[in-house]
Design brief:
Blueprint: E1 2-3, H1 14-25, H2 36-56, E2 63-66, H3 69-84, E3 90-94, H4 99-110, E4 114-118, H5 127-133, E5 138-144, H6 156-166, E6 171-175, E7 194-198, E8 209-213, H7 228-231, H8 239-254, H9 256-274, E9 280-283, E10 292-297, H10 302-311, E11 314-315, H11 330-335, E12 344-348, H12 355-371
Parallel strand pairs: 1-11, 3-4, 3-5, 5-6, 6-7
Antiparallel strand pairs: 2-8, 7-8, 9-10, 10-12
Bound molecules: pyridoxal-5'-phosphate.
Pyridoxal-5'-phosphate binds next to helix 3.
Length: 375
């Protein structure tokens, strides 16, 4: 099996899974309990929080654990707008967000907020456009760091700096799911106030994520219960999942440069292998993360190519896993051709992919182009 869908989810390494198992079968206490088992579980939470804090470059009390990036983003966006609604009514985001931000924005709009969705220009996002859109009425800016379909990197640090210089009222949130532990980026060294990340994109289990919240950020809780996770995310912490995420982050954080170099190599190799293939278009901009490559195969519908490659044991994506085959409109936004989205294949590398696998994948894509009847 050759897995090239690491932007959708990743395989948990056995050593990491064992850490979770240990938390369930041995150190299974409730971290809020005062006895030894509880203290041991609390210690596991602390260790994981430390490794997340190191990766964010922040303090431990600026990290809360959640069930995933979707929940992190809900806490961040509803929390900030609720806390700041007396100061203003305007929110700025992009036209290419993942459903976890996009659908929250749609709901905030229904609730009466003015939502401005910045569009790309020539396939790129410019900080200037966000700064120009910011005024005294603006309370929130939410921008993704790396687009999950194409790998486009957005200038989030520059945007945060610029919008905050323009208006002191603004809180900046970043969806960091496709960049966390993959790009050398320390959120605490920027003007970004909140960043959502997910465990299952970085070799931890599904059902765990985190939210970085800079100290002093105005945020109101919207879910009630115990006072866990800085009183923002009530409920007994998922210690086994958190523990696994902490262990994975600790390891990945050390390997960011090494892994990035590996991704650049695989990226260059795939492009080289597909070079001179007339019917393949690589959909990228100059600001692309190397671990996501989106290609369009002329005349070959995504699902057909996906199944063809699947038969040969190459697993890729036809679009965002969360949109379940529905069009996202993102390709049209970035490449000014709505129809292209029907033909895209997303290849996303993981740390364990090899050069031989990439050569095999390129070969299978070319075979697919020859074998499939084009529309
Ligand atoms: N944001 C982006 C950019 C994603 O790619 C995803 C997952 O596909 C999410 C958010 C949602 O993450 P989670 O599955 O942890 O809720």
């Amino acid at each position: 099996m050759h897995y090239f869908d690491n932007a959708a989810t990743t395989k948990v390494d056995e050593a990491i899974a064992k850490q979770a198992l240990l938390c369930m079968t041995h150190d299974f206490g409730n971290p809020s309990s005062f006895h030894k088992l509880g203290v041991a579980a609390q210690q596991k939470l602390t260790n994981s929080r430390k490794s997340l804090a190191k990766a964010f470059g922040c303090k431990e009390d600026e990290v809360i654990f959640t069930s995933g990036a979707t929940e992190s983003t809900n806490i961040a966006l509803f929390g900030a707008t609720c806390a700041l609604e007396k100061r203003g009514n305007k929110i700025i985001t992009t036209s290419i967000e993942h459903a976890s931000v996009k659908n929250v924005m749609d709901e905030l709009e229904r609730k009466g907020f003015e939502v401005v969705r910045i569009k790309p220009r020539n396939g790129k996002y410019y900080a200037k456009d966000f700064i120009d859109a910011t005024d005294d009425n603006t309370i929130l800016v939410s921008v993704m760091h790396v687009n999950n379909l194409t790998g486009l990197v957005l200038p989030v640090a520059e945007i945060a700096k610029g919008v905050k210089q323009k208006s002191r009222n603004v809180v900046v949130h970043v969806d960091g799911v496709q960049s966390f532990c993959k790009l050398p980026f320390k959120v605490s060294r920027t003007d970004i106030d909140m960043m959502s990340v997910s465990g299952h994109k970085i070799y931890a289990p599904k059902g765990v994520g985190a939210l970085y919240i800079k100290k002093g950020t105005k945020i109101k809780k919207h879910c009630y219960g115990g006072s866990h996770e800085n009183d923002l995310r009530p409920g007994t912490e998922a210690v086994p999942l958190i523990c696994a995420m902490g262990a994975s982050v600790a390891r990945l954080n050390q390997d960011v440069d090494k892994n990035l170099e590996h991704y650049y190599k695989l990226n260059a190799l795939l492009k080289e292998e597909l070079e001179n293939t007339d019917d393949i278009r690589i959909l990228e901009s100059e600001d692309n993360a190397p671990y996501i490559i989106c290609i369009a195969a002329k005349g070959v519908k995504s699902e057909i190519m996906l199944h063809f490659l699947g038969e040969k044991n190459f697993y890729v994506a036809s679009g965002s896993a969360c949109s379940k085959g529905k069009k996202t409109g993102i390709i049209g936004e970035l490449f000014e051709d709505d129809k292209l989205e029907d033909f895209i294949i997303r290849i996303s590398f993981g740390k364990d992919n090899t050069e031989d696998e990439v050569k095999g994948l390129a070969c299978a894509v070319k075979e697919g182009l020859d074998a499939i009847i084009k529309v």
